[in-house]
Sequence to fold (393 residues):
Amino acid sequence: MKALILDAQNQTANLCDIPQPTANDNEILVRVQAISLNPIDPLYVSHPLASSGRTIGSDFSGTIVSLGSFVPPGNNLKTGDRVAGFLQGACSVNERPGAFAEFLSVPWDLVWKVPDGVTTEEAAGVSLVALTAAQGIWYRLGLNAPFAYDKETVLEENPGWESSRIVRSNDPDVLNFFIYGASTSVALYAAQMVRLSAQASGKKIRLFGAASKARWELLKAEPYGYEHLVDYRDADWLEQVRELAGGKGMDYAYDCISEGDSVERVSATLGPNGKSAIVRSRAGGAWKADNLPVEPIYGAVWEGLGEEIQYQGFTVKKSVAAREFAVAFYKWLGEAAGNGLTPNPIRLMPRGLEKVVEDGFKLLGPGKMEDRGLGRTEEWMKPVSAEKLVYII
Ligand SMILES: NC(=O)c1ccc[n+]([C@@H]2O[C@H](COP(=O)([O-])OP(=O)(O)OC[C@H]3O[C@@H](n4cnc5c(N)ncnc54)[C@H](OP(=O)(O)O)[C@@H]3O)[C@@H](O)[C@H]2O)c1
Fold:
């Protein structure tokens, strides 16, 4: 089969012929039909952690070709079903599978069944960013999720989270939630999840966001429903947020950029007992901040895959709780997509795997958001804003 394979020495990936995988006992074999790109995919091709020969890429959707012998009957999966999920690609030091290939194998419970009404191309853009947002909003910040999962194991594994959750039980009826980078793919899900939590808890949550003005109309409309937006390019956006909130600080903040001074400024929006989550680690060096009022909660989406991962100079421990949460989330997504979450808008990119590095990776850049410079004029090479880049395989 064809697959995009890391060439670490030359910091690129090449289309190669490799043997087709087979499904282990608890896995399914998937014929990949669409993939979407995440910033993490080009980041670890330009700055390789892995050695040459690894299949790169995370997000996929496709159809089931075969099921391993331990895949439980009655799990509602069968040959020919459309499913979507994500793998780790070449984003770790230790050997992990990747998705940018014609076939892949994946644990049967870490995919979600794509419901009617969601296209295979849309589905390719969901799994990694939606789980990232679900971990941020529900698993880490502890807002009410619209599905059940084992919260005791979460707190056993993360005892530091407990005190802030107790404070949360005294929350007032109106909460303020600020999302920085509101037009990122992660944030498009985060906003929807905050609103689902508000419905589940019966509390009003006022959504504040920072995004470019060009995206405000989209973000104020359904299904996102921001009450107040500021433009992150305005030097005084932090003061604007404070003013719009009438002097009351944020109860929660989610920094979907976590670069430069964003973590410091997003933390400064918080009121007393406010709590925040971020998408990039201190250890990775994308942001710096001293004397934060409260240390923001970071986690890598890879935790959901339930395996130990060596990553960015530290080890992401194997987490039973994070895997169980991912399984519960994907089960709900497969049942509820359509009335639960709206898939992100997609940009269908021309051609397939052979153009991912040349076009898609150019658009996402080699690392930071501020490094996304282009100099290309084709229609499909305009800057990425509130959308996923999708290739048909
Ligand atoms: N921790 C994890 O496991 C995890 C998982 C997934 C993603 N991430 C990280 O999360 C971040 C977002 O990922 P994504 O896929 O959602 O990104 P994305 O969709 O590619 O982000 C594009 C958006 O970023 C916005 N943006 C660019 N610079 C900004 C700035 N300085 N301030 C505010 N907004 C800015 C742009 O907004 P406008 O168009 O409005 O200008 C654009 O809409 C990335 O850094 C990614 O690596 C982390």
